[in-house]
Write a structure and sequence with these properties.
alpha+beta, Jelly Rolls, Alpha-Beta Plaits, Trigger factor, domain 2, four-stranded antiparallel β-sheet
């Protein structure tokens, strides 16, 4: 490839190949066991800086995944056209409602991704496809999740990991090997990246204020990539498709491209430089909105340092009822027990949500709200009147923030307890049940009328 390509080079067909049954069964089994460890943490996002959040586990030190790479390496290097170096290896975990966003893993030439599916089973109807887009933003390929399948592709390809369906009872796990051509084989070797840096301004307990710097050169590089993409897609009078001069693109779309580049780079800074298991709470853009380097300040809460108090001091109301009253209310003992157990769980979750406060970045809350609203609209539960929509949306915003907060808290409590859970719901059940077992309880016997009301819920 030329070192100084034209502003609008002819599009090339990027590398993408599906590889089935890439390792022996015993190694596939070992790979699945490796992601059962209690090392998952919540808060990773696919489209850096975007709204999506799901589970992640770092796997650089896992021998099973080192062996998988050694077996896959020959074919991957043949497709890449040179020797490959592993930059990172990690697992993403998705459950129902926790899908990703369309994104590019790396905008640089000479970078590749090997995406491996370690799940031992994946049923029809569970969805969770990996979707790849063409240069026009249309779906080019949807790869179904199959056990022991992998996809090797150019990291510049736009793609997204879809969430599993409501019917799925498993955690959708994908393991990403981020790769680059080795020195000497790469088309355009780059020096060590110092364009995105962070420094600590101050710290107070679990709260930390960080200052990020993104160089003007790095921003300009991202802006140019986005303008080149726009140049291949947009149509302007007087210009042939794909032949719009860069200066015209800059004049018309420069602001939009800079906004997009800034979101990407800020998110990249979050993913790589914010301490692990930290929750961003507030972001202030200090400079760089229109031009020059970007300077931002970000406040984060390090969950590992967060004070949670003595959770054994929680007092819960435990509901009971006599067999005669249950019969009079038309409520079976089994159904009543489910209601009573849910009452305990709700009290635990309410206590955690109210007693462990920390700020959450509004864009994360908005992303969770968008997921809730989409589910409400698809089920027909969202009102049609505009005034009602506004009221319901604000109520659901509080639900979204609660869900996010509890997700972070339960993940941290599970980590501290060494919980070995394969899914987020499983981890939540374990942590909540442990807190219920350790809490003080005061009994309250329900009347027949209260039981009848309970049966209507």
């Amino acid at each position: 490839m030329p070192q100084n390509p034209e502003p609008n080079p002819a599009p090339i067909t990027p590398v993408l190949e599906v590889l089935d049954d890439i390792v022996p069964k015993d190694l596939h089994d070992a790979a699945w066991q490796a992601v059962q460890q209690p090392r998952w943490f919540f808060g990773h996002g696919s489209n850096t800086g975007g709204w999506s959040r799901f589970w992640k586990m770092d796997l650089e030190d896992e021998s099973a995944y080192s062996q998988i790479w050694e077996l896959a390496r020959p074919r991957c290097e043949q497709l890449a056209g040179g020797r490959l170096e592993v930059i990172r290896v990690y697992a993403n975990g998705h459950t129902y409602g926790l899908g990703g966003e369309a994104h590019r893993d790396d905008p640089r030439d000479g970078t590749f991704t090997l995406l491996y599916y370690p799940n031992p089973e994946w049923k029809d109807g569970w969805d969770g496809e990996t979707v790849y887009y063409d240069e026009a933003g249309e779906v080019a390929l949807a790869v179904r999740l199959r056990p022991n399948r992998a996809v090797f592709f150019d990291s510049r390809i736009l793609h997204v990991g879809r969430a599993p369906s409501r019917q799925c009872t498993a955690l959708r796990v994908t393991v990403a090997y981020k790769l680059q051509l080795a020195s000497g084989d790469a088309p355009a070797p780059e020096p060590e990246n110092k364009d995105i840096t962070v420094r600590e301004i101050r710290r107070n307990g679990a709260r930390q204020l960080l200052a990020f710097h993104i160089s003007a050169e790095r921003i300009d590089q991202e802006v140019r990539l986005r303008l080149e993409e726009m140049g291949r897609e947009v149509k302007l009078p007087g210009f042939r498709p794909g032949q719009i001069p860069m200066e015209v693109l800059e004049q018309r779309y420069g602001h939009k491209a800079r906004e997009s580049a800034a979101r990407f780079l800020i998110g990249q800074a979050f993913d790589t430089l914010i301490p692990r298991s930290s929750v961003p709470g507030q972001m202030d853009l200090k400079s760089g909105q229109a031009d020059g380097p970007i300077e931002i300040e970000v406040s984060v809460t390090q969950m590992g340092l967060l004070e949670v108090g003595d959770l054994n001091e929680i007092e819960l109301e435990q509901l009971t009822a006599s067999p005669a009253d249950l019969e009079a209310a038309g409520l079976s003992p089994q159904t009543a027990e489910l209601h009573f157990a849910q009452h305990l769980r709700t009290q635990i979750l309410d206590h955690l949500n109210q007693s462990i406060p920390f700020p959450i970045l509004p864009i994360l809350i908005q992303g969770e709200l968008d997921t809730i609203l989409a589910a409400a609209k698809s089920s027909g539960a969202f009102p049609e009147a505009k005034e009602e929509q506004l009221s319901v949306t604000e109520q659901l915003r509080a639900v979204a923030e609660r869900r996010l907060r509890l997700g972070y808290i339960l993940a941290e409590l599970g980590r501290r307890a060494g919980v070995k859970a394969s899914t987020g719901p499983e981890l939540e059940r374990f942590v909540v049940d442990q807190l219920i077992d350790g809490a003080r309880k005061r009994e309250r016997t329900l009347s027949v009328n209260e039981l009848r009301a309970l049966a209507q819920e």
